[in-house]
Every structure is written in structure tokens, then in C-alpha cells.
Amino acid sequence: MRAAVLTGPEIFNITELPIPRLKNGEVLIRVRACAICGTDLRIFRYGHPKIELPAVIGHEIVGVVEKTESDGSTSSGGVAVGTQVMVTPGIPCGSCDNCLRGRFCTNKSSIGYQYPGGFAEYLVVPAHGVNTNLFPLPNPLPPDQRPGDYTLAEPLACALNGLEQLGELPLSGSALIVGAGAIGVMLAKLLLRRGLERVAVADLAAAKLRLAGRVVPPEILLIDNGKVDLQEQTEKITQGKGFDVVVVACSSPEVQEQAPHLAGLYGKILYFAGLPPGRTSIRFDSNALHYKLASVHGTYGSTLYQNREAMRLIASGFTRGICDSSYPLDRINEAFQKAISGHTLKTIIEP
Q1: 328 and 262 in one domain?
Q2: What one-character DSSP code corresponds to residue 316?
Q3: How does pLDDT run across 283-327, given as a tens digit for each residue?
Q4: pLDDT digits over 22-78, tens only?
Q5: In a 3-state reduction of DSSP, which class is residue 35?
Q6: Does residue 51 contact residue 116 with C-beta atoms inside 8 Å?
Q7: Burial 298-319 (b: 16+ CB within 10 A, else e)
Q8: For residues 202 and 223, what is the distance between their CA atoms, to the nearest angstrom?
Q9: What is the pLDDT of residues 136-191, one digit of tens each?
Q10: Are 287 and 337 in a shared domain?
Q11: Are residue 7 and residue 131 in the same domain, yes or no?
Q12: Do 59 and 93 belong together in one domain?
């Protein structure tokens, strides 16, 4: 099989590898599509402490069940050969306190990290993830949908998880999302669904804002903070009150530091995007939190239930238009550079 092997910073090599041989209980997936995540971009540029190169990465995966391997003592999850599935990458351990409480598993192992990922023609789902991590696509697919559209299930589930961390939100309130990528767009639409009336998306890149403008409802405000001051726009939009919710969906220490000043009384701040190595420490005015009675929340990953909810949302058309670019496997380096440039919302690799 062909695989895109990450061998160093910003270098994928297209390599011929053997098709994996299955062990008992495992499932072989023929990859139909694997989308490029913001985390993939950071791995591509800076590496990752949990990934030893050379490696096959990619964790937003849709494929077809090609083969199962079972001696009868383990289950193939009831997913038949030929079924189109979304593969949720994070495999929970099933035994820790968080798993037993239905929470996010911190002992999970993940496809694209501990196991080879989806930037290849085939991948293996480990036996302990077969019963939990394969989600069949609707059959037939809704009109105007392709299998690759369901690569958005994992990032959409992460967005759902992030909003869950915020808890109750004020009806008719306001929100600002800084970062106009696919995650920012989905968060903005989810916040509208939660009953907030004034939702704004900001980005330094005018090109990304234009792309976002094609897929978000017209009532969502778009702010080019490369041309206007974000603090001044906040004052104008909220009439000096600050936003009820501020989401940082971009890897910017400066925006993380600015976020408390953009929030209003009882404001909630969500740090959605991580920072690259060497830039993970920030400084901000803690009095801005103290006197606003504001709160800061962190988030990453998602639960299996949130992935199920994401699949339903995609089938309803919630993410229509977000997957706006696709490349074959042998053009993966070009695809990653395109994603870095900000001239696409969500890029898909189709092996």
C-alpha cells in the first residue's frame, strides 16, 4: 500500500508499505478520506512528543471495512465488510474513573499517534477499539453528501466537547470566536444553536474570512482584525459590555493573553487551540478575570457520545460547504502547505 510517511519537519515521503496483517479482533479499513487537522499542521511543522518519526499520521478518517479478523472470542463490532465508517481516533481504556463516569478518557490511545494514521491507503483499528470507535455512515448518504464530509465528525465532536465545558450560556447573549478555520465556523454555528444572538468570528487572514463567509449564516459578524483593532470592535459590538463568551480557536499566545479583556462581566473564556512547543506560557492581567467574575476553560478531544452527535449533525447538513479542498495522497505536501496558507477551510486527502 502507499502511505505518506512523515520523516521530518514539513516532509512527507510517499512510501510503499505492506498492507497490515490483522491480529485477532482487529479490523482493516481502506481509507476513503482523511482530513488535515490543525494538530496535524503543528505535528507537520514542529513534531509532537507522543509521535516518533518516521510516522504515518492523520486522525480525521472515513473509510470502508475491508477485512475483519476474529476467532470467535472477540467481536468485530457488528460492522460488516463493505460498510462505510467514520473512525473515531481516540480509543478509551474503558476502565479508568473517567471512562466509568462517561467522561473524556485521559488514558486513551489514538490512531494517528500511538497507532498508524489515515494518510495511507489502509489502516488497522485495534481490537479494543472495534466495538466503540467505528461509526457507520448513513446508507444511503443524504443528497449532495460525500463520504469525505464525515471526516468532520471528529473535529465537530471536539467543538461540542468545548461548548460542554462552558456549561450554561446566557440566552440572547454574545460570543466571539477568534480563528475562522473549520473549527471556528462550526463553533460559531453551534453557539447560534445554543441561543446566542450576537456571534462574531475574527481572523487576521482576509482570505479565511471570505471562505468562512460562504458557509456561516448571514447574522454572524466577520471581523478582519488584521485591519481593525479587536478590542475596539468588541467595545462597538457589545456596547462596551464585552462578550459573554470568548473562544480562542487559533494558536496565538497574543490572543490568549488578550481574551480576558474581550470578555464581559461573568464572561466565559475557552482556550480551544493549543500552542506550539516553546510558546506555551502566556501572561495576562488576572485582575481582568478577578473583577469581571470571569472564568477560563480549557478543552481538547471528545467523547464517543459527542462523536455520535456529530455524525447526526453532519447528516442534517450542519457542516455543508466546510470541506472545500481535496488532494490525492501523492500531493500531500502541497495540501499541507495550502492548509497552512489559510486559503482553505478544510482540506481532505483521498488516498
Answers
A1: no
A2: T
A3: 888 999 999 999 999 998 898 899 999 999 999 999 999 999 999
A4: 998 999 999 999 999 988 998 999 888 889 999 999 999 999 999 988 755 444 556
A5: strand
A6: no
A7: ebebbbbebbebbbebbbeebb
A8: 4
A9: 999 999 999 999 999 999 999 999 999 999 999 998 899 999 999 999 999 999 99
A10: no
A11: yes
A12: yes
Q: Per-residue b/e over 75-86, b at no fewer than 16 CB within 10 Å?
A: ebbebeeeebbb
Mark whether 60 and 28 lie in a shared domain: yes
Residues 209 and 104 both lie in one domain: no
What pLDDT is attached to residue 259? 97
**Maximum Cα interatomic distance, the chain, rounded to a whole number of Å:** 66
The CATH number given to whatever domain includes residue 28 is 3.90.180.10
Bridge partner list, 48? none
Distance CA 236, CA 272 (A): 25
Cell for 236? 462597538
Mark whether 259 and 170 lie in a shared domain: yes
Number of domains in the chain: 2
Query: What percentage of residues in the chain have a pLDDT greater than 90?
Result: 79
- Are residues 126 and 7 both part of a single domain? yes
Quick one: which of 61, 11, 17 has its CA closest to 349?
61
